[in-house]
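[step 3/7] inverse_fold.run input=structure_tokens len=139
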């Protein structure tokens, strides 16, 4: 069974735009982290997940008002207390990749100390193996 993917959508509205009339990178970062958090929280308790680092949120094109974007996220690699999610923001077409990157989350207790989560991710496809290798290189 492949690693589960979580999908969310956003409509780009006027308040999401920058001074160039395209999607503001800060709003993109918010949606990017939210999407990764949804994947991480889908594997454990949401109240135990905190964001540690965004790794390479790279844009391939601007996004205009009125576009509906698709956020695809999945936990691709885990450690004792860390959870690394891979996120893609896509446009209307399946191959319309707008942004991609990784986020490292940490599984913590109520005092904010790292807490083992017991999650093991096993890559089963060539794509998952490649994404895990890229995620390992981030550390």
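[step 3/7] decode complete -> sequence:
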């Amino acid at each position: 069974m492949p690693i589960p993917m979580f999908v969310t959508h956003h409509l780009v509205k006027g308040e999401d735009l920058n001074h160039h009339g395209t999607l503001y990178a800060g709003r993109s970062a918010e949606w990017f982290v939210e999407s990764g958090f949804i994947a991480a929280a889908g594997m454990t308790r949401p109240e135990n997940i905190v964001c540690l680092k965004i790794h390479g949120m790279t844009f391939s094109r601007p996004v205009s008002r009125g576009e509906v974007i698709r956020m695809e996220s999945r936990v691709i690699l885990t450690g004792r207390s860390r959870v690394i999610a891979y996120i893609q923001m896509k446009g209307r077409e399946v191959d319309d990749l707008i942004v991609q990157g990784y986020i490292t989350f940490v599984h913590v207790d109520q005092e904010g100390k790292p807490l083992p989560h017991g999650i093991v991710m096993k890559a089963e496809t060539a794509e998952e193996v490649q994404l895990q290798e890229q995620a390992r290189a981030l550390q």
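[step 4/7] annotate
The chain has a mean pLDDT of 94.
Residues 25-41 form the longest helix (17 residues).
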